[in-house]
């Protein structure tokens, strides 16, 4: 941390990566880098400016069991430098790879996808009903455990808590079926799935799990705007983006037990949500980055890959593996021992996870690796020429937002899996359908080719037979002529 860039220099870097993101958007109609750069600007650069330059706020302070954090100017600038490094590495890598040539073979088209969707209506309707019943059961169990004194972190299965997130994936599938119905010829089906969409949207808007709402709204937004030119899309994003942010802040404001005083009433909460946005209460990832940079390597050694390996370790129950390492530096250092089983953590963002892996080199390397992974994911979605490809792109966007904001990497991956498992199951069924469809197409083409070859052989045989008959007729005629001439000679 001896060499740090000034705030003004980081401002120029922010302008540079913003230009790269805008070029990528208008050149390829790809908004992914806009999300990356906007997150850095709003949650890191703007946060530093708010506290250090404008003196319009203070950094977050948590009364942990151990007072080990110092929140001052120098640490804030160091954290801003590291987050700028990670953002630049990810942005430049993605943009460089995205500019290379694309030679992608399409797996499907809209006709095949629509045909499959029509066959899956009862499957998706049944999936919705089963999920609705199981969600009521898991929600009831969670609340009963909380009433019994068990906290959200201890004594309650995290997966039973996150089961309700699956409504995001269910809603996406429901919308795909809804699109296939006609208001004129299939009015009942259209009204039924409209009703289901309203129910699913209502269930997903949960103050305790605010990303449940964003998980489907971003995915469907990307799909709906898939053919909109970049300029018009920019105008729509400028309208819909602040609206989504307001709804996100509104849900956070109605969540009891937060730092914001609990407020009742719709319009008072709207005003409080707007004030929450102005204060940046949901954009304090710079604060979390400052904390984690003081933990590694001062109190804990760098992980060197274990932060990502924990994604595979987290689902293993501690009853099966009593010695399983604790997750999160907060648990490892026992910082919440004074909170009676509760948990309070300030997210260090994805870049905080990169720092825990190996300081500045870890941030740069992980930024490059993630840039490669994201571009490959987007190339995979390009193989689908139907709406499913755009749904996947929207899912990547929503998942990226969760990854950027979240500091608990295994927990975020669990959130993504528990949200989109219905779409993953659906995609597997669709992949099998495409394979069968392609096989049938090959069989049909083979039958057509074989029939054409048989017809060709038959025509050749008929031509040969016709030639043979012509030759025989000619020989018979010649022989008859010969006999006639012979008789004439004899008579003479």
Structure description:
The chain is mostly helical and 492 residues long. Helices cover 72% and strands 0% of the residues. It has helices at residues 7-28, 32-53, 73-98, 110-119, 121-147, 158-162, 167-180, 187-204, 211-224, 230-253, 266-279, 285-295, 306-313, 329-332, 349-381, 387-405, 409-491. The termini are far apart.
Hey, roughly how much beta strand do the residues contain? under 5%
Arithmetic mean of pLDDT = 84
**Biggest pleated-sheet summary:** none
Number of extended strands:
0
Query: What count of helical segments does DSSP give?
Result: 17
Query: How much helicity do the residues have?
Result: over 70%
Instruction: Tell me, briefly, the overall form.
Output: elongated
Low-confidence stretches: 152-156, 256-261
The SSE string, one letter per element, is HHHHHHHHHHHHHHHHH
Overall radius of gyration:
32 Å
- Structural category: mainly alpha
Distance separating the two termini: 130 Å
Topology, element by element:
Layout: H1 7-28, H2 32-53, H3 73-98, H4 110-119, H5 121-147, H6 158-162, H7 167-180, H8 187-204, H9 211-224, H10 230-253, H11 266-279, H12 285-295, H13 306-313, H14 329-332, H15 349-381, H16 387-405, H17 409-491
